[in-house]
Structure to design on (252 residues):
């Protein structure tokens, strides 16, 4: 394990994000991303797979100085990269704890704002809106209703349910909401075989981090056990095809 910088800036992140950050920081020495990786093989490092995911999104963007809205900025790494390579990029999250980390890391070099996508002010306009594992937290009809006011081009990289589960957007219902607001799917890339090793990365490490998580983050043993069991159950949804991970490109 590598040394971890103190203080733990992510200590107050909402559970279980604080857990994922803790493990990533200790294992990798840094945690630039909170999203899944896309694995070409199960033995490659998670950061390499996460970078592949970001590269896939970037490959779908028109060239700078396109105006981009990143809805859900996580730790700000992608927003900073977009800004640095010449995009007119704005990033948002409703999570003030994540905004604090983004500002600590990047200061005024990025335009990161603490607001929910549904409340993003009109009549601002963007060439593309990107959702990287953030669409699942927004009601689908609300998402596309606001997106219609802001852009004609949406990129989504996220998980979907292929059957009723109560946790994720139903894939068919998400596409129906898009159609209701005049968005049509121009590309649909199934990445369901490449994403699940991200789940395994944490499930296999949680048991040996158990005591450290309890001491450093104030978790209970039950919370750690619940997270391990949740990861195993979640992986099972992918194994039987109940969950899917996709890149969707939509235009109107």
């Amino acid at each position: 394990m590598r040394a971890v910088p103190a203080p733990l800036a992510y200590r107050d992140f909402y559970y279980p994000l604080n857990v994922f950050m803790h493990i990533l920081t200790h294992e990798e020495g840094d945690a630039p991303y909170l999203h899944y990786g896309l694995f070409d093989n199960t033995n490659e490092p998670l950061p390499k797979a996460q970078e592949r995911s970001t590269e896939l999104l970037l490959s779908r963007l028109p060239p700078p100085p396109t105006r981009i809205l990143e809805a859900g900025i996580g730790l700000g790494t992608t927003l900073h990269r977009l800004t640095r390579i010449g995009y007119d990029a704005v990033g948002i999250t409703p999570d003030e704890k994540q905004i604090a980390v983004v500002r600590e890391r990047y200061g005024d070099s990025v335009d990161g704002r603490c607001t929910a996508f549904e409340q993003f002010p009109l009549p601002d306009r963007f060439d593309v809106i990107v959702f990287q594992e953030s669409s699942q937290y927004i009601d689908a009809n609300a998402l596309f209703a606001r997106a219609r006011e802001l852009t004609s081009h949406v990129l989504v990289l996220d998980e979907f349910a292929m059957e009723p589960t109560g946790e994720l957007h139903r894939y068919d219902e998400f596409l129906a909401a898009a159609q209701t607001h005049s968005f049509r799917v121009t590309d649909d890339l199934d990445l369901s075989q490449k994403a699940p090793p991200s789940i395994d990365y944490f499930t296999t490490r949680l048991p040996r981090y158990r005591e450290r998580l309890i001491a450093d983050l104030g978790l209970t043993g039950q919370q750690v056990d619940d997270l391990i069991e949740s990861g195993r159950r979640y992986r099972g949804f992918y194994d039987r095809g109940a969950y899917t991970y996709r890149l969707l490109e939509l235009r109107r």
User: Anything to note?
Assistant: Residues 1-6 have pLDDT under 50 and may be disordered. The CA atoms of residues 41 and 131 lie 25 Å apart. The radius of gyration is 18 Å.
